[in-house]
Amino acid sequence: MTWTMTTKQGDTWDMLALRIYGSDKLGYVLLQANPNYMRILYLPAGLLLIVPQLPDGARRTRSKLPPWER
After folding, report:
1. What domains are defined for the chain?
2. pLDDT per residue over 11-55, tens digit each?
3. Which residue pairs, CB below 8 angstroms and at least 24 apart, start in 57-63?
4. How far is it, in rounded angstroms, from Cα 63 to Cα 40?
């Protein structure tokens, strides 16, 4: 299952992954689903991104983050 989202000015891949999946380490999932924007570090407002379901084996937990990052 996939869905879409619209970026806000200054969003980054790791920040979006943290917000969506609970881990900034899962930014690669978003990058793979949106290869046309791979070279953009700070995303502009208004991009429509594909947000895929996490692949098997990917973790969606924040429990391993230090308390200040939860």
Report:
1. 2-54 (3.10.350)
2. 999 999 999 999 999 999 999 999 999 999 999 999 999 999 997
3. 58/21, 58/26, 58/29, 59/23, 59/26, 60/21, 60/22, 60/23, 60/26, 61/22, 61/23, 62/22, 62/23
4. 29
